[in-house]
Amino acid sequence: MYKYLLLVTLAVLAACQPASEEPIAEEAAAAVAVEPAGRIDNNATLAAVLDSQADEMKARYKFRNPQETIEFFGIEPGMTVLEGLPGGGWYTKILLPYLGAEGRVIGASYSLEMYSLFPFASEEFMAREEGWEAKFLIDAKAWGGESGASVEAVRFASIPDRFANSVDVAFLPRVLHNPSNFQNNGAGDHLLTIIADTFKVLKPGGTLGVVQHEARAEMSDEFADGSHGYLKKAWLKEQIEAAGFEFVAESDINSNPKDQPTEEDTVWKLPPTYSGTGDDAEEKAAVDAVGESNRMTLKFRKP
């Protein structure tokens, strides 16, 4: 109906033009008719992929807004996408079938050096992380199916040069608080390294998409250093732009005004982690009423 009304409107406008301008009106009508159709097809493809996911994934759509997020960053079938910290593959399971056989996903995890800084980095944990690349590739093959995108696995701080200028979109969902925490507390330039790596792999004109737990501007810098999971928008934009990126746009699609942490709270108190709630049903209910964290959604461009 939308396309029909749009074409009728253009036809009426064209009829009002002098005869010499009719070819221009016809070209405009053709352009408007073709471009939205392509976007609509991609949107429908993505919606179908999302609808095919397991119910436990769908339960988080209202907080993670995958359709709106992927569309905002301009991710389309056939692209090469670097996904930061894919973990158990929540977004990978969506990207692989959506990008299709002509697409590619490059999963990028933290460096082993950075993982060793976590207080829970036991020998068992580190041994498991050392095998992440092989496990991710095996899991991703099943997630993508026969027509899914190809997959590769890398680690920040050691991404091979062959990936330089090859990525259409670098997508970093809730990735940057941990490297910010370690960097802000003197344990290495982990945030700057990750930002530099994304700049390196992106094609000129490529997009860096960031979704990150957001601290309110009035909260202390100590709270927002990454150790509580939250970062301030202005500070993070400054770090990314200093690396050469151009800020393009932001969206409130992942914002949650119900998330109002105190200086003592951490993001891990919220779903799905529930850290510190224990068996207190009343406290868990209060946390559930908040939902997942308030998140900034930022789009940058590599010049």
Name of the CATH superfamily of the largest domain: Vaccinia Virus protein VP39
Classify the fold: give the CATH topology of the largest domain: Rossmann fold
Protein structure class: alpha/beta
What is the mean predicted local confidence, pLDDT?
90
Task: Encode the helix/strand succession as letters.
Answer: HHHHHEHEHHHEEHHEEHEHE
Keywords:
alpha/beta, Rossmann fold, globular, 8-stranded mixed beta sheet, 303 residues
What does this structure look like?
This protein is of the alpha/beta class. The protein folds into 2 domains: 1-51; 55-301, 3-Layer(aba) Sandwich (Rossmann fold). It is built from 13 helices and 8 strands. The protein has helices at 2-15, 22-51, 55-58, 61-64, 66-72, 92-99, 112-115, 123-130, 132-144, 177-184, 190-201, 233-242, 281-290, and strands at residues 80-84, 104-109, 150-155, 167-173, 202-215, 231-232, 246-251, 295-301. Strands 1, 2, 3, 4, 5, 6, 7 and 8 form an 8-stranded mixed sheet that branches. Helix 6 (92-99) links the parallel strand 1 (80-84) and strand 2. Helix 1 (2-15) packs antiparallel against helix 2 and helix 10 packs across helix 11. The radius of gyration is 22 Å and the shape is globular. The model is unreliable at 1-35 (pLDDT under 50).
Brief summary:
By secondary structure, this protein is an alpha/beta fold. Helices cover about 45% and strands about 15% of the residues.
What's the helix and strand layout?
Blueprint: H1 2-15, H2 22-51, H3 55-58, H4 61-64, H5 66-72, E1 80-84, H6 92-99, E2 104-109, H7 112-115, H8 123-130, H9 132-144, E3 150-155, E4 167-173, H10 177-184, H11 190-201, E5 202-215, E6 231-232, H12 233-242, E7 246-251, H13 281-290, E8 295-301
Parallel strand pairs: 1-2, 1-4, 2-3, 4-5, 5-6
Antiparallel strand pairs: 5-8, 7-8
